[in-house]
Amino acid sequence: MIAPADLFELQGLSLAGVFAGLETAWEALDRIKDFTTEMVLGAGRTGALLRGGGEVMPRTVVLHHGRVFDSDFQLLGGDPTKGQMLVSLNGQEVSDAAVVYAGAVFLDDTVHIAPGAVVEPGTLFKGPTYIGPGSEVRQGAYLRGSCLVGAGCVVGHTTEMKNTIMLDGAKAGHFAYLGDSVLGRGVNLGAGTKLANLKIIDRSYRIKVEDKIYNVNRRKFGAIMGDGCETGCNSVTNPGTVLGKGCLVAPCVSVPAGYHKARSIIR
To answer: What is the domain count for the chain?
Structure first.
Protein backbone atom coordinates (compact mmCIF):
# COMPACT_ATOMS: atom_id res chain seq x y z
CA MET A 1 0.00 0.00 0.00
CA ILE A 2 2.88 2.39 0.63
CA ALA A 3 5.62 0.85 -1.50
CA PRO A 4 6.52 2.89 -4.59
CA ALA A 5 4.89 0.30 -6.87
CA ASP A 6 1.64 0.59 -4.87
CA LEU A 7 1.44 4.34 -5.42
CA PHE A 8 3.06 4.89 -8.81
CA GLU A 9 3.08 3.14 -12.17
CA LEU A 10 6.83 2.68 -12.58
CA GLN A 11 6.81 0.80 -15.89
CA GLY A 12 8.48 2.92 -18.55
CA LEU A 13 9.13 5.79 -16.14
CA SER A 14 12.44 7.58 -16.73
CA LEU A 15 12.71 8.55 -13.05
CA ALA A 16 11.88 5.08 -11.70
CA GLY A 17 15.45 4.58 -10.52
CA VAL A 18 14.95 6.96 -7.61
CA PHE A 19 12.64 4.33 -6.05
CA ALA A 20 14.80 1.27 -6.71
CA GLY A 21 14.93 -1.13 -3.77
CA LEU A 22 12.81 1.02 -1.45
CA GLU A 23 10.20 -0.48 0.86
CA THR A 24 8.31 2.79 1.36
CA ALA A 25 7.79 5.66 -1.05
CA TRP A 26 8.90 8.36 1.39
CA GLU A 27 12.42 6.91 1.57
CA ALA A 28 12.94 8.50 -1.85
CA LEU A 29 13.03 11.91 -0.15
CA ASP A 30 16.53 11.11 1.08
CA ARG A 31 17.69 10.27 -2.44
CA ILE A 32 16.42 13.24 -4.41
CA LYS A 33 19.52 15.43 -4.25
CA ASP A 34 22.02 12.75 -5.30
CA PHE A 35 19.73 11.24 -7.92
CA THR A 36 18.95 14.64 -9.43
CA THR A 37 22.65 15.48 -9.58
CA GLU A 38 23.30 12.23 -11.45
CA MET A 39 20.47 12.99 -13.88
CA VAL A 40 21.81 16.48 -14.55
CA LEU A 41 25.40 15.33 -15.06
CA GLY A 42 24.28 12.48 -17.29
CA ALA A 43 22.04 14.64 -19.45
CA GLY A 44 24.25 17.72 -19.58
CA ARG A 45 24.32 20.91 -17.57
CA THR A 46 22.11 23.39 -19.39
CA GLY A 47 23.03 25.87 -16.70
CA ALA A 48 26.65 25.70 -17.85
CA LEU A 49 25.62 26.45 -21.44
CA LEU A 50 23.71 29.46 -20.16
CA ARG A 51 26.59 30.47 -17.90
CA GLY A 52 24.51 30.12 -14.77
CA GLY A 53 25.81 32.22 -11.94
CA GLY A 54 23.09 34.55 -10.78
CA GLU A 55 22.72 36.83 -13.75
CA VAL A 56 19.31 37.46 -15.30
CA MET A 57 19.02 36.00 -18.80
CA PRO A 58 19.30 39.10 -21.02
CA ARG A 59 17.48 37.59 -23.99
CA THR A 60 15.31 34.64 -24.96
CA VAL A 61 17.28 31.64 -26.22
CA VAL A 62 16.54 28.30 -27.83
CA LEU A 63 18.44 25.15 -26.85
CA HIS A 64 18.77 22.44 -29.48
CA HIS A 65 21.16 19.50 -29.67
CA GLY A 66 23.61 21.06 -27.22
CA ARG A 67 23.66 24.47 -28.90
CA VAL A 68 22.32 27.80 -27.69
CA PHE A 69 20.57 29.95 -30.30
CA ASP A 70 20.05 33.61 -29.45
CA SER A 71 19.04 34.60 -32.99
CA ASP A 72 17.77 33.06 -36.24
CA PHE A 73 14.78 31.42 -34.57
CA GLN A 74 11.05 31.97 -34.40
CA LEU A 75 8.78 30.73 -31.63
CA LEU A 76 5.71 29.22 -33.29
CA GLY A 77 3.89 28.35 -30.04
CA GLY A 78 1.97 25.31 -28.87
CA ASP A 79 1.52 23.42 -25.59
CA PRO A 80 4.87 21.92 -24.53
CA THR A 81 3.21 19.40 -22.20
CA LYS A 82 1.49 17.86 -25.24
CA GLY A 83 4.62 17.90 -27.40
CA GLN A 84 3.20 20.69 -29.52
CA MET A 85 5.72 23.48 -28.87
CA LEU A 86 7.25 24.32 -32.25
CA VAL A 87 10.29 26.43 -33.01
CA SER A 88 11.61 27.47 -36.39
CA LEU A 89 15.43 27.28 -36.45
CA ASN A 90 17.01 28.70 -39.56
CA GLY A 91 13.74 28.09 -41.37
CA GLN A 92 13.27 24.49 -40.19
CA GLU A 93 10.47 23.56 -37.78
CA VAL A 94 11.52 21.44 -34.77
CA SER A 95 9.56 20.12 -31.79
CA ASP A 96 12.52 19.04 -29.65
CA ALA A 97 13.97 22.46 -28.83
CA ALA A 98 13.83 23.93 -25.34
CA VAL A 99 12.99 27.60 -24.86
CA VAL A 100 14.35 29.75 -22.02
CA TYR A 101 12.80 33.21 -21.97
CA ALA A 102 14.60 36.39 -21.05
CA GLY A 103 14.37 37.12 -17.33
CA ALA A 104 15.03 33.59 -16.07
CA VAL A 105 17.81 33.24 -13.48
CA PHE A 106 20.16 30.28 -12.97
CA LEU A 107 22.00 30.67 -9.67
CA ASP A 108 24.35 27.80 -10.51
CA ASP A 109 25.00 25.49 -13.44
CA THR A 110 23.73 22.16 -12.06
CA VAL A 111 20.42 22.54 -13.90
CA HIS A 112 19.20 20.59 -16.93
CA ILE A 113 16.39 21.73 -19.22
CA ALA A 114 15.36 18.81 -21.45
CA PRO A 115 14.22 19.06 -25.09
CA GLY A 116 10.76 20.48 -25.59
CA ALA A 117 10.64 22.19 -22.19
CA VAL A 118 9.78 25.86 -21.74
CA VAL A 119 11.06 28.20 -19.02
CA GLU A 120 9.13 31.45 -18.71
CA PRO A 121 10.44 34.85 -17.50
CA GLY A 122 11.16 35.35 -13.81
CA THR A 123 11.87 31.70 -13.00
CA LEU A 124 14.71 31.23 -10.49
CA PHE A 125 16.70 27.99 -10.43
CA LYS A 126 19.01 26.58 -7.79
CA GLY A 127 20.68 23.24 -8.44
CA PRO A 128 20.55 20.41 -8.63
CA THR A 129 17.39 20.64 -10.70
CA TYR A 130 16.25 18.47 -13.61
CA ILE A 131 13.38 19.58 -15.86
CA GLY A 132 12.11 16.76 -18.05
CA PRO A 133 11.02 16.79 -21.71
CA GLY A 134 7.99 18.88 -22.55
CA SER A 135 7.62 20.35 -19.09
CA GLU A 136 6.62 23.96 -18.52
CA VAL A 137 8.09 26.16 -15.79
CA ARG A 138 5.89 29.22 -15.62
CA GLN A 139 6.56 32.85 -14.78
CA GLY A 140 7.87 33.51 -11.30
CA ALA A 141 8.43 29.89 -10.25
CA TYR A 142 11.11 29.33 -7.58
CA LEU A 143 12.97 26.01 -7.73
CA ARG A 144 15.19 25.88 -4.65
CA GLY A 145 17.23 22.81 -5.52
CA SER A 146 16.84 19.02 -5.39
CA CYS A 147 13.94 19.39 -7.81
CA LEU A 148 13.29 16.37 -10.02
CA VAL A 149 10.63 17.07 -12.65
CA GLY A 150 9.52 14.42 -15.14
CA ALA A 151 8.03 14.73 -18.61
CA GLY A 152 5.02 16.89 -19.42
CA CYS A 153 4.83 18.52 -15.99
CA VAL A 154 3.83 22.06 -14.99
CA VAL A 155 5.62 24.05 -12.30
CA GLY A 156 3.26 26.97 -12.14
CA HIS A 157 3.17 30.70 -11.64
CA THR A 158 4.79 31.68 -8.30
CA THR A 159 5.03 28.02 -7.32
CA GLU A 160 7.86 27.18 -4.93
CA MET A 161 9.48 23.76 -5.00
CA LYS A 162 12.29 22.09 -3.03
CA ASN A 163 13.44 18.52 -2.49
CA THR A 164 10.46 17.25 -4.44
CA ILE A 165 9.75 14.79 -7.25
CA MET A 166 7.09 15.40 -9.89
CA LEU A 167 6.48 12.28 -11.97
CA ASP A 168 5.32 12.48 -15.57
CA GLY A 169 2.27 14.65 -16.15
CA ALA A 170 2.08 16.10 -12.63
CA LYS A 171 0.89 19.69 -12.49
CA ALA A 172 1.06 22.41 -9.86
CA GLY A 173 -0.19 25.26 -12.01
CA HIS A 174 -0.81 28.17 -9.67
CA PHE A 175 0.51 29.51 -6.34
CA ALA A 176 1.58 26.14 -4.89
CA TYR A 177 4.19 25.09 -2.34
CA LEU A 178 5.86 21.70 -2.81
CA GLY A 179 8.28 20.78 -0.06
CA ASP A 180 9.84 17.35 0.59
CA SER A 181 7.13 15.64 -1.40
CA VAL A 182 6.46 13.22 -4.25
CA LEU A 183 3.71 13.83 -6.82
CA GLY A 184 2.71 10.79 -8.84
CA ARG A 185 1.81 10.61 -12.50
CA GLY A 186 -1.02 12.90 -13.53
CA VAL A 187 -1.41 14.52 -10.11
CA ASN A 188 -3.12 17.90 -10.36
CA LEU A 189 -2.93 20.50 -7.61
CA GLY A 190 -5.63 23.15 -7.54
CA ALA A 191 -4.58 26.80 -7.27
CA GLY A 192 -3.08 27.66 -3.89
CA THR A 193 -2.45 24.08 -2.76
CA LYS A 194 0.22 23.85 -0.08
CA LEU A 195 2.05 20.64 0.80
CA ALA A 196 3.16 21.58 4.32
CA ASN A 197 6.38 19.86 5.34
CA LEU A 198 7.35 20.96 8.85
CA LYS A 199 5.72 20.08 12.16
CA ILE A 200 5.49 22.85 14.71
CA ILE A 201 6.73 20.38 17.34
CA ASP A 202 9.79 18.34 16.42
CA ARG A 203 8.50 14.76 16.63
CA SER A 204 8.72 11.75 14.35
CA TYR A 205 5.91 11.17 11.86
CA ARG A 206 3.59 8.22 12.55
CA ILE A 207 2.00 6.65 9.49
CA LYS A 208 -0.60 3.98 10.32
CA VAL A 209 -1.45 1.54 7.55
CA GLU A 210 -4.03 -1.01 8.68
CA ASP A 211 -2.49 -2.55 11.83
CA LYS A 212 1.08 -1.39 11.24
CA ILE A 213 2.59 1.91 12.36
CA TYR A 214 5.62 3.38 10.61
CA ASN A 215 7.74 5.90 12.49
CA VAL A 216 9.45 8.27 10.05
CA ASN A 217 12.36 10.06 11.69
CA ARG A 218 12.98 13.08 9.51
CA ARG A 219 12.48 16.76 10.28
CA LYS A 220 10.66 17.63 7.06
CA PHE A 221 8.07 15.47 5.35
CA GLY A 222 5.46 16.90 3.01
CA ALA A 223 3.07 14.71 1.03
CA ILE A 224 3.37 11.52 -0.97
CA MET A 225 0.61 11.59 -3.58
CA GLY A 226 -0.17 8.51 -5.63
CA ASP A 227 -0.91 8.62 -9.35
CA GLY A 228 -4.00 10.55 -10.36
CA CYS A 229 -4.62 12.42 -7.10
CA GLU A 230 -6.28 15.84 -7.32
CA THR A 231 -6.66 18.69 -4.85
CA GLY A 232 -9.12 21.54 -4.84
CA CYS A 233 -8.08 25.17 -4.64
CA ASN A 234 -6.52 26.45 -1.39
CA SER A 235 -6.25 23.00 0.18
CA VAL A 236 -3.42 22.07 2.53
CA THR A 237 -1.91 18.68 3.27
CA ASN A 238 -0.52 18.43 6.80
CA PRO A 239 3.08 17.26 7.23
CA GLY A 240 3.39 13.51 6.79
CA THR A 241 0.43 12.91 4.46
CA VAL A 242 0.32 9.85 2.17
CA LEU A 243 -2.45 9.65 -0.42
CA GLY A 244 -3.15 6.44 -2.32
CA LYS A 245 -3.84 6.47 -6.04
CA GLY A 246 -6.76 8.55 -7.24
CA CYS A 247 -7.56 10.42 -4.02
CA LEU A 248 -9.63 13.58 -4.31
CA VAL A 249 -9.31 16.55 -1.93
CA ALA A 250 -12.08 19.15 -1.79
CA PRO A 251 -11.28 22.89 -1.94
CA CYS A 252 -10.14 24.64 1.25
CA VAL A 253 -9.64 21.36 3.12
CA SER A 254 -6.87 20.68 5.64
CA VAL A 255 -5.95 17.06 4.94
CA PRO A 256 -5.10 15.12 8.12
CA ALA A 257 -1.62 13.62 8.28
CA GLY A 258 -1.26 9.89 7.81
CA TYR A 259 -2.26 7.35 5.19
CA HIS A 260 -5.41 7.71 3.10
CA LYS A 261 -6.33 4.67 1.04
CA ALA A 262 -6.69 4.80 -2.74
CA ARG A 263 -9.65 6.72 -4.17
CA SER A 264 -10.49 8.37 -0.86
CA ILE A 265 -12.57 11.54 -1.03
CA ILE A 266 -11.36 14.00 1.62
CA ARG A 267 -13.68 16.89 2.47
So the answer is: 1
